Amino acid sequence: MHEPITVNVATAARLVGVSRAALYPLVMSGDIPSFKVGRRRLVPVAGLEAWAARAARDEVEHGD
Questions:
Q1: Fewer CB within a 10 Å sphere, N or C end of the chain?
Q2: Which residue, 21, 2, 12, 5, is CA-closest to 51?
């Protein structure tokens, strides 16, 4: 069976290890890519992985 290429915000938050409330502002600001289908907001798993890699790299480079 194939892995999904998109997930909802709650699942994206679980994958990253944070609360939905912590992830939702990042999604709404565009830091984490997302799109709507009807009333659902979906997050591409590849975009979530890219965001996590950028965040980790920025942490190492800037110590923020």
A1: N
A2: 12
Helix 9-16 and helix 45-62, axial crossing angle in degrees, nearest 10: 40
pLDDT computed for residue 38 by the predictor: 97
Residues sharing a CB contact under 8 Å with residue 4, sequence separation 6 or more, in sequence order: 45
- The torsion angles phi and psi of 59, rounded to 5 degrees, stand at -65, -45
Tokens of 40: 């659902």
Residue pair 13/19 in contact (Cβ under 8 Å)? The answer is yes
pTM of the model: 0.85
